[in-house]
Amino acid sequence: MERIGLIGAGRAGTALGAALAAAGHPLAGVTARSDASRERAARLLPHVPVLTSDEVTARADVVIVAVPDHLIREVADTLPLTEAQYVVHLSGAHGLAPLAGLAATPVALHPPMTFTGGLVELDGVMFTATAPDAARPVVERLVKAVGGQVQWVADEQRAQYHAGLVHGANHLTTLVSQALAVLRDAGVSDPVATLGPLLATTLDNTLRSGHHALTGPIARGDVDTVAAHLEVLRARTATTYAELARATVELVVADGRLDPATASRFTKVLDGHQAVSRERDRTGEAPR
Prior knowledge:
Elements: E1 4-7, H1 11-22, E2 27-30, H2 35-44, H3 53-59, E3 62-65, H4 72-76, E4 86-89, E5 105-110, E6 126-130, H5 136-145, E7 149-152, H6 158-185, H7 191-209, H8 217-220, H9 223-232, H10 235-254, H11 260-283
Parallel strand pairs: 1-2, 1-3, 3-4, 4-5, 6-7
Antiparallel strand pairs: 5-6
């Protein structure tokens, strides 16, 4: 099995390193500069020596540069890499550019998962990789070792790939946080218990059926309910609601569930809200 070297002891790198070690891949070493990194390395990689970056690189077949995105190129440039090695970064947003021109074979390998600083279950995770053809067997072997799957994305599509993840995951957190706040303002004593089952079922249905899982007032053509919602929501949440409502109208029109006349009524309500919001931003109060 390939010897793995970890440059950086961040949350993603240590979790992946621990999973690879558990699968039998020898970890040649890890670098850890801060107190938090050293503590994390000691906790998740207790039998892996903490070494300098040169020492880690010299002992490894696969060097994982697990540092923040903006430091990948800067750190990778300092490593004594050879043509016999593979150099891997874990960024979702970047392709091979940060590793271009290095002696080692470059790999962009992203596990779309939340890393919180502890061990992470990677079984079933769909890793996304960009790499030369020569690196594919090694990448597939590493991913399968931790129980994951691998898909390949072209270098020029990495930004779009990452945008999809951020829009679906990070913005979901924003959306749910806003919804919980609205429920609290409505006097709901336990917003999580109220929204949780509906949210879990909706997410499951949507992952299985896409936009066909959509229910609610827009799918029913209930324009008056959407207008009432915009009246009672606070400014920031109402803006989010209106933008998502507009996108939802487009989805329902596209699949034929909403007739053009009703869609036009929705558009009129949403455009009216937008005009009110612009006037409020300009003057500090709604137009009379």
